[in-house]
């Protein structure tokens, strides 16, 4: 099969980690008889430097014509980089929000798994981490506060900023369906997270999620307020299977969930639309402080490539080959510096890519 993939190396460590992911994908292609066709586009700071904008229409068109998009990371140091002197709509992050909207990527899947081999890196007490956890945050990605009307006005000499949080029932329904569908393939539990004790958008969220739940009698649904969820994530993460939530809550909770795994450098993500098309990227950022040093952990990007094979191409065996290679290198004791622990062998970004490539 020919896989037509648009790559966004991006900024910071992005180009290094995407290069390693391509290496692993090429090994998958050789072993399973596929052809990988990559087309790179610029986004974020790299695009600002080249074109003055964080995302061009041409780049969007290239991405649209592909089967899937594999991304590294975008953005720079928000206090020192000149990109952050630009108006907000021209900064690197606007490119990411722009491509999410342009490609209608409303469903963001962020798995947070405690790897047995890395349990020592989990910052939680051992009596909590011993239970292990394996959750998936299903975050709505193209609505809510991120895309509502916003403005800053001056009223009677006083500055006032307004952000609008809007959801219609269709937006809620389609993400809820994605959440329940994926729960059916997992442990069949959905925790829908909202702030229904305060927000109208959350009360509508709850109502629509309950309607959707009727079509999934095998799935257990519970509702949880977002502040309680933030607490439960550190108190008892094993209780969660699928967390279904809106854009802003999902942004915050997914960072918290990845932190409790102790290894954000390991966590992949997928952003999907209604078809098989998706954008796949690590859950971590561009880490400008370590860019170019060959010490970044490429595993989150490589696991994102695995998610791409699984969700956009239905290539489960190929995705398993990548996931198993990751498990093997961890078992054999190889670690990048972010997940290093005593008795293990420290390797750089490229070497980690090579080790994984050899195990495909
Ligand atoms: C994320 C990031 C983005 C978001 C930023 C970079 C705009 O934090 O993907 O979680 O808030 O969605
Ligand atoms: Mg975030």
Could you explain how this protein is built, in words?
- The protein is built from twelve helices and 14 strands.
- It is of the alpha/beta class and 360 residues long.
- It is globular and about 60 Å long.
- It has two domains: 1-106 and 274-360, Isopropylmalate Dehydrogenase (3-Layer(aba) Sandwich); 123-261, 3-Layer(aba) Sandwich (Isopropylmalate Dehydrogenase), CATH 3.40.718.
- β11 and β12 form a beta hairpin.
- A ten-stranded mixed β-sheet has the order 2-1-3-12-11-4-5-10-8-9, sandwiched between helices.
- 40% of the residues lie in helices and 21% in strands.
- Bound molecules: 3-isopropylmalic acid and magnesium ion.
- 3-isopropylmalic acid binds at residues 93, 96-97, 251.
List the helices and strands and how they pair.
Layout: E1 2-10, H1 14-32, E2 35-40, H2 45-51, H3 57-65, E3 68-73, H4 92-102, E4 107-113, H5 126-129, E5 134-140, E6 150-155, E7 158-163, H6 169-184, E8 189-194, H7 200-213, E9 220-225, H8 226-235, E10 242-245, H9 247-261, E11 268-272, E12 278-282, H10 299-311, H11 316-331, E13 334-335, E14 345-346, H12 349-358
Parallel strand pairs: 1-2, 1-3, 3-12, 5-10, 8-9, 8-10, 13-14
Antiparallel strand pairs: 4-5, 4-11, 6-7, 11-12
The chain binds 3-isopropylmalic acid and magnesium ion.
